[in-house]
Amino acid sequence: MAARDGLQSGEVVWPTEHKLELIRRLVVAGVRRLEVASFVNPERVPAMADADAVCAGLPPDEAVRYVGLVLNDRGMDRAVAAGVDEVNFVVACTDTFADRNQGTTAAGSLERWRRVAERARHEGVPAQVVLSTAFGCPYEGEVPVDRVVQMAQACADTGPVRLTLADTIGSAAPADIDERVEAVLGRLPAGVQLGLHLHDSRGTAVANAWVAYGMGVRSFDASLAGIGGCPYAPGATGNVCTEDLAYLFERSGVPTGLDLDGLLRASRWLTDRLGQPTPGNYARAGPFPRRDVA
């Protein structure tokens, strides 16, 4: 998610060619599903103003799925015109976050999702929905589990390829993952995959991912070097780091299809380009011999 969530709230707006180079390096490192841009109002998120140009410059690769974030009908129009392979939509669990992030209520964001999902089916474009603030809201605090389950069911009823629970401000601990993943898993229709979008604001994201993996979750959003955050969620620091997560799974005997050395090179390139330290741990500590190496 580095090219979208990772760069959307940075102080420096990257030129299109640098974003395309970042995406290229991620593909070389084995990433096969990338969120590359968000089709949102450029006045609110200037860093994503070149979404159409980024998509136009993407290297064609049948093995790679390029994903675009949309938040309304207009964004869906642009994403379809840009030729993305998949769209990603956000529904908020709380009214205050929905208002700050999307200018609507939680119910309003759900209704927008239903329209986008219908359009996606008509266009033959797979659609994923992310349920934001599923583990806590920066404005309303605790979000009841029943509320999360209710919103998850309403989202899943439209038939997304994936429903992702987002720890938008990194407030979840493993016990929260256990509680909410179990509650939602039991209510998902057949064919809807459950994913997690984790932030490492309080240092729990990698542990949370491991707990979720043990519960059957196989889809995790991550950002190279751990960069990113939501501009409308105070305190939401970087997403869980791609190379940290890859190391966790590979070291634990779980193949990821990712090249850790390639991710390390890409992460260090990204950090140099940003000109400031990044949150990821793996790039700072460096590689460690695999378990099958004597």
Keywords:
294 residues, alpha/beta, TIM Barrel, seven-stranded parallel sheet, 14% strand, globular
What does this structure look like?
The chain is α/β, with parallel strands linked by helices. It has one domain (2-285): Alpha-Beta Barrel (TIM Barrel). It has helices at 2-6, 16-28, 51-56, 73-82, 95-102, 106-123, 145-156, 174-185, 205-214, 242-251, 260-274, 282-285; strands spanning 33-39, 65-70, 86-92, 127-132, 162-167, 193-198, 219-221. It has a seven-stranded parallel sheet with strand order 1-2-3-4-5-6-7. Strand 2, helix 4 (73-82) and strand 3 form a beta-alpha-beta unit. The longest helix is centred in the middle third of the chain and has 18 residues, at 106-123. It is globular. The model has no long low-confidence stretch (mean pLDDT 93).
Strand and helix layout:
Layout: H1 2-6, H2 16-28, E1 33-39, H3 51-56, E2 65-70, H4 73-82, E3 86-92, H5 95-102, H6 106-123, E4 127-132, H7 145-156, E5 162-167, H8 174-185, E6 193-198, H9 205-214, E7 219-221, H10 242-251, H11 260-274, H12 282-285
Helix pairs in contact: 2-11, 5-6, 7-8, 8-9, 10-11
Net shape: globular
The spatial strand order of the largest sheet comes to 1-2-3-4-5-6-7
CATH architecture: Alpha-Beta Barrel
Structural class: alpha/beta
Number of helices: 12
Order of helices and strands: HHEHEHEHHEHEHEHEHHH
CA distance, first residue to last residue: 35 Å
Compute the average pLDDT. 93
Q: pLDDT under 50 segments (min length 5)?
A: none
Can you give the helix content as a percent range? Answer: 40-55%
* Fold-level CATH name: TIM Barrel
Task: Tell me the strand percentage band.
Answer: 5-15%
Largest sheet: 7 strands, parallel
